[in-house]
Amino acid sequence: MPTYDSETDHFADECGIFGAYFADADDERRAQLSRIVYYGLYSQQHRGQESAGMVLDDGGDFQVHKELGLVAEVFSDEVLDGLRGHAAVGHVRYSTRGANSLANAQPLVGQSRLGPLAIAHNGNLVNAPVIRELLEDAGVMFQTSSDSEVILNLLARGSRYGLRRALSDTMRAVQGAFSLVILTQEGLVGVRDPNGIRPLCIGSLDNGYVMASESCSLDAVGAELVRDVEPGEIVIINDEGIQSVKNSERTALRTCSFEFIYFARPDSTIDGADVYETRRRAGAQLFTEAPVEADLVAGVPDSGVVAALGYAEASGIPFGMALIKNKYVGRSFIAPSQKLREQAVSVKLNVLAGNVRGKRVILIDDSIVRGTTSSRLVAMLKEAGATEVHFRVASPPVYFPCYFGIDTPSRRELAANRGVEDIREMVGADSLSFLSVEGLLESLGTQRTFCTGCFTGVYPVAAPLEEEKMAMEQR
Description:
The protein is an alpha+beta fold. It has helices spanning about 25-40, 70-75, 75-80, 130-135, 150-155, 165-175, 215-220, 255-265, 275-290, 305-315, 340-350, 355, 370-385, 420-425, 435-445, 455, 465-475, and strands spanning about 15-20, 50-55, 60-70, 85-95, 110, 115-125, 175-185, 185-190, 200-205, 210, 225-230, 235-240, 240-245, 255, 270, 275, 295-300, 325, 350, 360-365, 390-395, 430-435, 450.
């Protein structure tokens, strides 16, 4: 399975989830629901490009459609016209565990004493292999290699005690990062792990509710943000409205810091924090920590642009476009050789030579994973006539892998472990600086804590050893 996006040298995206429930839905609403889910998923396409799917409940009859590919490729008008219901869950996937196959595409559907269940999951369970082995020893058969099926089986096994008990027991058994939307005949369920590592929010729409990984998805379907699901909370939505079950007393909000650095869309709000503003503040803080004289500040599209604006505002150096992104080259673009992979950067990003020729350029990106793309971008700017290129990174050095829903290379493959000066030489920049951990937290807001495990090695949940992670990935 891929460990990170080798084309952009960034962490690979996670997954996006969406759910909807409408009380007393008439025929028109039942017919419209598939398109509401479609637009909810489409707006979260940046979170996963390998597969897309949705499950609708039409009076106890679960209708399922999922395939490999982008949302617009998976759902045609004909497919959407054939899907009806009053409640639904949807998913866009990037495989953090489990191969990219149709069997692993979500939502996953199973049968239980509660009737059919459908689950869409964003995150990773650090104890999934142990639970899976115990279930297999008890005779449970697995159809996928996804840890999401572990959750589905635990729910089914606990269903004899009723929905709430099954949910509570399952959430106590699993460890790691998870946000879930679950479709049952009793209603729509939303769940967030006790540390709130992965985001999940609730919106209101007409006489119903929707849930999504990001608030931009609510905007896309015309819903109004109600609130974020709290850490360790189970939310059940049915004809009686929203019911909240606090599943754990030991909770603390530790949202993944990379949601703000890279993953989330800048027009989203997560746990009360405006993603655009956090990136702008990170850029301003980066100037405070690593000023340099230059003629132009530019960002690597798309996620480095807002930080570049913040750097330019704080420094007084003009902001400008140095790189143009080809938006018609998707993440599925494959180059068959190393030489062509390097050239692929030029296909995705091209230099505005007239803007950089004869200038000292500060180029800002959100992160560096291995540094391969960064070196190509610096070379492209200098080939276009930039006299100096100063590379600034709007996040701290990534020293450690993530185990909670982001695919990362192993620790020995991460560029940061080479040292900043070695990275600068490899990249070919005239200078290189990263934002400090303290500066990142300042930009995010110091009123609460965040998961910064990939920078500090301190995780909110006990992480497996590196060799154990490798074994988990080989299952």
